[in-house]
Amino acid sequence: MKSFIIQKPGKIEMVELPPIQLQPDEALVRVSYAGICATDLAILSGDMTLVRNGSIRYPIRFGHEWSGIIESVGHNVTNFTPGDHVISESGVTCGTCEFCQKKQWSKCPNSRSLGTINCWDGAFSEYMHIPARHLYKVPENISIKEAALIEPTCIALAGIKKAEIQPGKTVLVIGTGAIGLASVALAKYYGADKILLCGRKDSKLEIGRIMGADVCINTVTESLEEVVLRETEGNGADAIIETSGNVSLIQEVLHLAANQGHIGLIGFYEKVVLNFKIDEVVMKSLVISGVMGEFGMPGEVLNILSTGKVDLKPMITHIIPFNETANVMNHISDYENKKIKILVKINED
User: Fold this and answer.
1) Three-class SS string for the chain?
2) Bridge-based pairing state of the strands 66-73 and 85-88
3) What's the pLDDT tens digit per position in 158-170?
């Protein structure tokens, strides 16, 4: 079984691993596609807080954005069969603690993250094994390629739900990566009156327009503040979804939020925020939420995609063969100007 392993910062290589010994409650999945995430790249570089504090340890089989086809199931699995197209949660619980017995997955004290924190072996492999309790069948009207985009979309959905996006609201999305563009599509789905998207590359902003942005702001050539205040008649945005990870924008979004607005912070900032204007949060009655993935979100995203009202495929800018994974990750700067989501095709659909 061929798999990519990050052995240490700066060193990624393909290795041959022994066949997986399947547990009774697990499914063996032949991985079809895996997405290269900014977190995967940070693990490769070693330059991230989660590496420095020991939450992520080497060697690591990375990858948490994926889709695949069930090859076989353990003898206790009754709700999946070989040939099913599936995705999974990005967390794996122990299945035995008091919380798991109640299916309160988020409270499991022994949970592991797929390809990252306290690592459950990730998706950059020909095969992987996942407990069936964390798998989801992909409906026939959703391609297995698009299904590989569901994990970042789950994070976007968590932010959209916390911000209570609905008709009548104006939304500002900052960042044109996969989570930012998925946030645009979901804000449109939930009926936001106006969606503003800001970034630094016209090509990525144009994809955002295709996915539902009403106003695109290139912050290289335009003032974010001027455009947002003009488009909101000076009131600011009812909801701001910040996905860029740019800590310098934290102060600015306070000023761009409407009274009683909501600010969702999605991403790792890797810095301590100094001189934070907390009085502006108080005076405007703002709500600021940190956003991470949540158990149960993949099912919600699948339900949304199955309606045909949200199309994630425009986010796929590159598809590369499995054996090129290390080369692409080691030279990711060559792709920065145009990439949104790079999918690695690991096995045939």
Assistant:
1) CEEEEEEECCEEEEEECCCCCCCCCEEEEEEEEEEECHHHHHHHHCCCHHHHCCCCCCCECCCCCEEEEEEEECCCCCCCCCCCEEEECCEECCCCCHHHHCCCHHHCCCCEEECCCCCECCCCECEEEEEHHHEEECCCCCCHHHHCCHHHHHHHHHHHHHCCCCCCCEEEEECCCHHHHHHHHHHHHCCCCEEEEEECCHHHHHHHHHCCCCEEEECCCCCHHHHHHHHCCCCCEEEEEECCCCCCHHHHHHHHEEEEEEEEEECCCCCCCCCCCHHHHHHCCCEEEEECCCCCHHHHHHHHHHCCCCCCHHHEEEEEEHHHHHHHHHCHHHHCCCCCEEEEECCCC
2) antiparallel
3) 999 999 999 999 9
The pLDDT, as a whole number, for residue 243 is 95
Strand partners, 29: 70, 128
Q: Given this model, what pLDDT does residue 1 score?
A: 94
pTM of the full predicted structure? 0.95
Distance CA 330, CA 333 (A): 8
pLDDT at 183: 98
Which residues does 259 contact at the CB level (< 8 Å), separation at least 6?
Answer: 235, 236, 284, 285
3-31 pLDDT tens trace: 999 999 999 999 999 999 999 999 999 99
What distance in Å separates the CA atoms of residue 287 and residue 279, rounded to the nearest whole number? Answer: 13
Q: Residue 288's closest CA among 243, 239, 328?
A: 239
- Radius of gyration (C-alpha) of the chain in whole angstroms: 20
**Could you read off the pLDDT of 25-42 as tens digits, one per residue?**
999 999 999 999 999 999
DSSP label at 166? Answer: -
Give the chain's residues under pLDDT 70: none
Q: For residue 269, what are its two tokens?
A: 């900032």
pLDDT for 273: 76
